[in-house]
From TrEMBL:
It comes from Lachnobacterium bovis DSM 14045. This is UDP-N-acetylglucosamine--N-acetylmuramyl-(pentapeptide) pyrophosphoryl-undecaprenol N-acetylglucosamine transferase. GO terms for cellular component: plasma membrane. The gene is murG. It is a peripheral membrane protein. Belongs to the glycosyltransferase 28 family. MurG subfamily. Keywords: Cell cycle, Cell division, Cell membrane, Cell shape, Cell wall biogenesis/degradation, Glycosyltransferase, Membrane, Peptidoglycan synthesis, Transferase.
């Protein structure tokens, strides 16, 4: 049986595309092992898939001063030797990395052990972890045409982002019942602020909630600890810290989505053909990757973009109304996108590259 080691962690964006690939890898005859950090959020997600999980030491490479910058390189070095040991033990035909700092020692160890590695970069510009790993990889998959110029020409492959098949099997009626919506004639507005929520989006939405509820039923995923008890029981409004299995049903029900602009999230919106308003994380709070992602989708006619610094209740309400009124325009653009069969493209690349 062919063997593959998958790696990636730190955020859901470094894990869910790997999970999306797993059914196709199994169908292609691969035995899958996963290397992540000891107690990272990826551990639970992967173990829930019934995949053998190995934890290694992991450090973070920061662009700012932190005392941990002096100790973390030793953690990375330890993780490198642990990864070498695991690769020699498992004897994989190939390594597939979705990025995050835990993936760096794994890709470097694969090169040392003469095992080919493929990296997937979600954002328009490669993150620091992937920039360190790319020289040791055979191929680098990417989501956006704009990313190709940042990658070595002989390694770059435009594949798009693998999307979980279950995302397409949502039941809108289940979401309506779960949210206790009584007026089913109203369209549904879904607000997704990211895994930890967004204070600025939550506040703006709640300021214009009475106006929004005149036209929409509203599903608000506001992040852990961000529920507003005073809004409990408000007709047409359903707030949750997060959604797990229910999210696919919520996507199926949604007529319009407000979202952050993480690469995997917006690729899911494209795949589902959901009209959307993107509010990317500001450059002050990130390396600016979400802003670039959002600008790309805006250029392609898939999304409307509000910069976080410009967000206010009046602008949000006007943008929701205008985007919903023109929703067919955005749906048509997404349907004409010529979206790649990402899973098929990546599986073919893995088959071609595996030793």
């Amino acid at each position: 049986m062919k063997k593959i080691i998958m790696t990636g962690g730190g955020t859901a964006g470094h894990v869910t595309p790997n999970i999306a690939l797993m059914p196709a890898l199994k169908e292609a005859g691969y035995d899958i092992s996963y290397i992540g950090s000891y107690n990272g959020m990826e551990k639970g997600l992967i173990e829930a898939q019934g995949i053998t999980y190995y934890g290694i030491s992991s450090g973070k490479l920061r662009r700012y001063f932190d005392w941990k910058n002096f100790s973390d390189p030793f953690k990375v070095l330890k993780g490198y030797f642990q990864a070498i040991h695991l690769i020699r033990k498992i004897k994989p035909n190939i390594v597939f990395s979705k990025g995050g700092f835990v993936s760096v020692p794994v890709v470097l160890a694969a090169k040392f052990c003469k095992v080919p590695a493929i990296i997937h970069e979600s954002d328009i510009t490669p993150g620091l972890a992937n920039r360190l790993a790319i020289p040791r990889a055979k191929k680098v998959c990417c989501n956006f045409p704009e990313t190709m110029k940042y990658l070595p020409e002989n390694k770059a492959v435009l594949t798009g982002s693998p999307i979980r098949s279950e995302l397409f099997g949502g039941d809108s009626q289940k979401a309506i019942e779960y949210c206790h919506f009584t007026n089913t004639d109203k369209p549904i507005l879904l607000i997704v602020g990211g895994s930890s929520g967004s204070k600025v989006i939550n506040e703006s939405v709640r300021k214009v909630l009475p106006e929004l509820l005149e036209k929409f039923n509203v599903i608000h995923l506001c992040g852990k600890g961000n529920l507003d008890p005073s809004l409990d029981g408000l007709v047409g409004y359903a707030q949750f810290e997060y959604a797990n299995k229910e999210l696919t049903d919520m996507f199926a029900a949604a007529d319009l989505v407000i979202s952050r602009a993480g690469a995997n999230s917006i690729c899911e919106l494209l795949a589902l053909r959901k009209p959307n308003i993107l509010i990317p994380l500001s450059a002050a709070a990130s390396r600016g990757d979400q802003i670039l992602n959002a600008q790309s989708f805006k250029r392609q006619g898939f999304s409307v973009v509000i910069e976080e610094e410009s967000l206010n209740d009046k602008l949000l309400l006007e943008t929701v109304n205008s985007t919903f009124a023109n929703r067919e325009q955005y749906i048509n653009s997404m349907e004409s996108s010529g979206q790649i069969d990402s899973i098929g493209a990546i599986i073919s690349l893995i088959e071609e590259t595996a030793k």
